[in-house]
Amino acid sequence: MKRSIVILAGLGVIGVSLSGCESYYDQRYRTSYVDVRTQKEKADQCVAAFEPDGKAPQVMTYDSNTKTEVHVNQDGRRVDVTAQNAQDNTSLGMGGKVGGRIPDACTDADPNPLPAIRKRPNQRQSWDHK
Q: What does the pLDDT look like over 71-117, one tens digit per residue?
């Protein structure tokens, strides 16, 4: 009986020390996300967020000096505007509802669409009508 208690206690100590090694290892060798996409892929992701079906835009303008295209699409009250420059792989996208709240926006530097104006937590803004 005493031997089994000692063996179980020994296994408990080994288990604690092993879990301590894992947490030390995790703290010392952390990995971080590395974005391996090219600049063109980032720019394309931003535009694709607002032009998901790849159809021709309803309105398109082109500036021959800067080689920048601007596309405008409307679906009901939703309006999406994208601008892209293929020469330097930059883009801008914005979309939202007419009369809606804050539109979503992105750029080639931050290609995931998020609200264009980010609120601080627990702080009311002038557009909050609550």
A: 999 999 999 999 999 999 999 999 999 998 899 999 999 988 989 88
- pTM of the predicted model as reported, rounded to 2 decimal places: 0.64
Residue 82: CB atoms within 10 A of its CB come to: 23
What is the three-state SS of the chain?
A: CHHHHHHHHHHHHHHHHHHHHHHHHHHHCCCCCCCCCCHHHHHHHHHHHHCCCCCCCCEEEEECCCCEEEEEEEECCEEEEEEEECCCCEEEEEEEECCCCCCEEEECCCCCCEECCCCCCCCCCCCCCC
How far apart are the C-alpha atoms of 52 and 48, rounded to whole Å? Answer: 5
Distance CA 67, CA 70 (A): 10
- Residues 19, 11 contacting (CB under 8 angstroms): no
Cβ-count burial 11-20 (b if 16+ within 10 Å, e if not):
eeeeeeeeee
